[in-house]
Amino acid sequence: ETGVTQSPTHLIKTRGQQVTLRCSSQSGHNTVSWYQQALGQGPQFIFQYYREEENGRGNFPPRFSGLQFPNYSSELNVNALELDDSALYLCASSPMGGRQETQYFGPGTRLLVL
Amino acid sequence: AQSVTQPDIHITVSEGASLELRCNYSYGATPYLFWYVQSPGQGLQLLLKYFSGDTLVQGIKGFEAEFKRSQSSFNLRKPSVHWSDAAEYFCAVEANAGNMLTFGGGTRLMVKP
């Protein structure tokens, strides 16, 4: 069974640029969630996708957007990067997106915005 | 809205000593609670979870946690810490809809030889 994978592992961008991060869900999982973890803080929920539709969103501006594909892999896009967007971005998948389900996290993508 | 507080940012214990990491939550309904561990350069690994029933929950790696509704707490314990337990620990509560998690700020555990 393949776990959650994310690419790239590290990324450096400059302010104002756009970035796309990718996530492959664990086999059999149709729900993916994205979290932002700033240095020294706990992860913060960005949004969740279930069967290619956004299923919930945290307190993040519209320049954070996402996609989920028919194979349940996912992308996180961030436009107009700001310095505060520097963080570890974590992707997590779960079987159905329901309550009480365990979320399985990938290793994350570390983004540095200069 | 739900929130999670982990009062201890850093904790240092000696190898073989017991451990308790504190977690307090704020949530209007029955909370679904989780503890995750994060080792350097890695994602989050689930240690244990509480949904209902027995308030003492057993997890992996010898960890356990006790849910106390009256104190709004879900503290993580281990009777004897190993050097490999050094990591960051996060407590989380699940939102009312779906399974979005709200995390605490984390507690960094250091283990002295």
Structure description:
The complex is a heterodimer of chains A (114) and B (113). By secondary structure, chain A is mainly beta. Chain A has strands at residues 5-7, 10-13, 19-24, 31-37, 44-50, 53-57, 64-68, 74-78, 87-94, 104-105, 109-113. In chain A, strands 2, 4, 5, 6, 9, 10 and 11 form a seven-stranded mixed β-sheet that branches. A four-stranded antiparallel β-sheet of chain A has the order 1-3-8-7, with no helix packed on it. The model of chain A has no long low-confidence stretch (mean pLDDT 92). By secondary structure, chain B is an all-beta fold. Chain B has no helices and twelve strands.
Please give the largest β-sheet of chain B: 6 strands, mixed
The string of secondary-structure elements of chain B, in order, is EEEEEEEEEEEE
Shape of chain A: globular
What's the story with the biggest beta sheet of chain A?
A: 7 strands, mixed
Number of helices of chain A: 0
Percent of residues in β-strands of chain B:
over 45%
First CA to last CA of chain A: what distance? 37 Å
| Radius of gyration of chain B, taken over Cα atoms and rounded to an integer in Å | 13 Å
Describe the protein's topology.
The complex is a heterodimer of chains A (114) and B (113).
Chain A: E1 5-7, E2 10-13, E3 19-24, E4 31-37, E5 44-50, E6 53-57, E7 64-68, E8 74-78, E9 87-94, E10 104-105, E11 109-113
Parallel strand pairs in A: 2-11
Antiparallel strand pairs in A: 1-3, 3-8, 4-5, 4-9, 5-6, 7-8, 9-10, 9-11
Chain B: E1 3-5, E2 10-14, E3 19-21, E4 24-26, E5 33-38, E6 44-50, E7 56-58, E8 64-68, E9 73-78, E10 87-94, E11 101-103, E12 107-112
Parallel strand pairs in B: 2-12
Antiparallel strand pairs in B: 1-4, 3-9, 5-6, 5-10, 7-8, 8-9, 10-11, 10-12
Features:
heterodimer; A: 114 residues; mainly beta; 4-stranded antiparallel sheet; 11 strands; globular; B: 113 residues
What would a concise description of this structure say?
The complex is a heterodimer of chains A (114) and B (113). Chain A is mainly β.
